[in-house]
Design a protein that fits this description.
55% helix; 325 residues; 4 domains; Beta-Lactamase; single chain; 14 helices; globular; alpha+beta; Helicase, Ruva Protein, domain 3
């Protein structure tokens, strides 16, 4: 691909980011030049902003949002698109009539085409299907849209045929964890907990603590300090609170209110998120990444990483290297 075409893609990417759309990515190349370095930085920046917006924008909403639906496709048994939602057309920059009737895999990047064809054979063999896989879509302007795809087999009694519903979503892992913990608490409720529940309900009738604008500013400052110093040893909560000019209670309470997690959990999540991006979009050694993100040793880093994401740093790097080929 020529340098002019690569710069054109970068221009398109910047326009989308300027419009507040951060779910697009640029395709990597095997070239080792300034343009490729810019591609790497834009992909990392877009992913980081997207993660921040999803977390901050929805973690404190009145109604919990776990999934944000990007696109939906209705696919026939031959793999052709029968219907598509309007948002998918907008994201991919195609008219709906240009998408309907086309093979679904024609809107995927090269690596995802192979993955889709392998899974499609399995999908067609199952009478009941409820599966998921990660795919990258290619827009008309050659930008990439990665997303988690949920595939369900739809049985139509009147039509006498089956179709497949594929939904592309973005989701916040942090929010899923919060809801999972809540469900476990509900399931664990028993008769002996009724008195405690009454005490909790009574305490909730008291006036809720309100954060002032100055409190919010200081909590935001604390967040920025954490993100910009992931490689540093974290002080005690008391020392950190004094450092930003507040007290321990407001620091803990403010983080829970604004970001939905404790200070320590927020720091751990940010360290792991940065580590994941460095593995996906760079070639640093795991020892270097562990040091940059504040982990004392590679084994500790690997264990924590797998517990968070479900796969090891080595597995992620192999997958990322395969996707770039």
């Amino acid at each position: 691909m020529s340098k002019k075409k690569r710069l054109k893609k970068i221009s398109n990417m910047l326009l989308k980011m300027g419009a507040g759309k951060f779910f697009y990515r640029l395709e990597r190349s095997l070239k080792n030049d300034d343009v490729e370095a810019l591609v790497l930085v834009l992909n990392m920046m877009s992913e980081e902003i997207e993660e921040t917006l999803i977390h901050q924008g929805y973690v404190n909403a009145n109604e919990t949002i776990r999934h944000i639906v990007l696109m939906s496709f209705l696919i026939d048994s031959e793999g052709y698109i029968e219907a598509v939602n309007h948002q998918a057309c907008t994201i991919l920059f195609y008219l709906c009539e240009d998408i309907v009737g086309q093979p679904f895999h024609s809107f995927l990047d090269e690596a995802s085409v192979s993955k889709w064809k392998e899974n499609w054979k399995v999908f067609n063999q199952k009478k009941l299907l409820d599966s998921s896989l990660e795919l990258k879509f290619r827009t008309k302007e050659s930008l990439l849209v990665p997303g988690a795809c949920y595939v369900n087999r739809m049985r139509w009694k009147n039509l006498g045929k089956d179709t497949f519903l594929l939904t592309v979503v973005k989701h916040s892992k942090k929010q899923v964890e919060l809801e999972s913990n809540l469900k476990q608490q509900i399931v664990g409720f028993n008769k002996e907990s009724k008195n405690k529940l009454f005490e909790i309900s009574s305490s909730q009738t008291k006036e809720k603590v309100r954060l002032t604008n100055e409190d919010i500013r200081k909590i935001g400052e604390a967040r920025d300090l954490l993100i910009n110093n992931l490689d540093k040893d974290f002080p005690s909560i008391k020392e950190f609170a004094l450092q930003i000019g507040t007290n321990t209670f407001k620091l803990k309470y403010g983080f829970k209110e604004l970001y939905g997690v404790s200070v320590y959990r927020f720091l751990r999540n940010e360290r792991l998120r940065k580590a994941k991006m460095l593995i996906q979009y760079g070639d640093r050694s795991f020892k270097s990444i562990a040091h940059i993100t504040g982990f004392k040793s590679v084994p500790h880093f690997s264990r924590t990483f797998k517990k968070q994401f479900g796969f090891t740093p080595t597995e992620l790097r192999k997958k990322s290297s395969f996707d770039d080929e």
